[in-house]
Amino acid sequence: MDERYHAGSCLMVMGSEGRGEQILKTDQDNGLILADDLEWPDCAEQMQRLTDTLIELGYPPCPGNIMVSNPEWVGSVSQWQRRIARWIEARDGDSLMKLAIMLDSHAVAGNPALLDRVRDDLFAQCAGNELLLSYFARTILRFSTPLTLFGSLKRPQHGIDIKKGGIFPIVHGVRVMALERGIRPTSTLERLDALADDGRLEPRFAEDLGEALSLFTELRLKQQLSRREGDDDNRNPDRVVVQELSSLERDLLREALHIVKDFKQRLSHRFHLEYS
Question: What is the CATH number of domain 131-275?
């Protein structure tokens, strides 16, 4: 980025990178906030150059086109505030996804105060909006927890999707609670600590959720690395084959998934998802 524009702009990363939770190769998830009075004539050209440079360095383009080369992810503070207001009003799947992405944004260059202004406005617009929170939380029910009716691990031959069944419900559920309470940190573990300090979660349960998330991430990474070493890139990178785990790992995974199930039930009760 041109140094002349550093004070009047803020480059942010989002998604797992914004939360500091990315593992292995990550694609691009970035955006740009500009001061309302900034004049930057060739901004679009420079942002396209930045995207192209990152691709050359090995960062694949975002499949959802959430990049600074896309004008929808570049704008002044006022433009961002109006965009967020539209997302909140629309409450459709695409708008809620963009809201989640923005909640995880983290400043990496330029003036971070610009991002603070946008995020403060986001929290202010969402404060007390129970209908929005209910819509926002509903996504946690999209994927089932891979446990049988009797509480044991499901064991499909192709493996269980640990991201959908374990990681996502914790990450997004904690994100919803952070939005509800106006909690600023972006990492899931920091959000859990803040929610415990705030009294929103019991410290022990917050700790259990953090340990469950760490276990899911570790199991996912181990299987990704083993497949990479064996040149087996055809299998879904998020799938963990239960039969390949040790007895201890299976026990820990089952316990962790029960914690996820409990968390989803709590969120369903709090945000009235049983009626959605």
Answer: 1.20.120
Q: Taking a C-beta distance cutoff of 8 angstroms, is the pair 9, 47 a contact? A: no
State the first-to-last Cα distance of the chain, in angstroms, to the nearest integer.
45
The pLDDT tens digits of the residues spanning 187-218 come to 999 999 999 999 999 999 999 999 999 999 99
Domain locations in the chain as residue ranges: 3-127, 131-275
pTM of the model: 0.92
DSSP 159-206: -EEHIIIIIHHHHHHHHHHHHHHT----SHHHHHHHHHHTTSS-HHHH
H or E segment at 264? helix 247-270
DSSP 3-state of 240: strand
Q: Could you give the angle at the alpha carbon of 170 between the alpha carbons of 164 and 171, nearest 5°?
A: 90
Beta bridge partners of 147: 153
Count the Cβ atoms, other than its own, within 10 Å of residue 116. 14
Beta strands in the chain (DSSP E): 9-13, 30-34, 74-76, 106-110, 160-161, 239-240
Which amino acid does the sequence have at 22? Q
User: Alpha-carbon distance 220 to 180, whole Å?
Assistant: 29
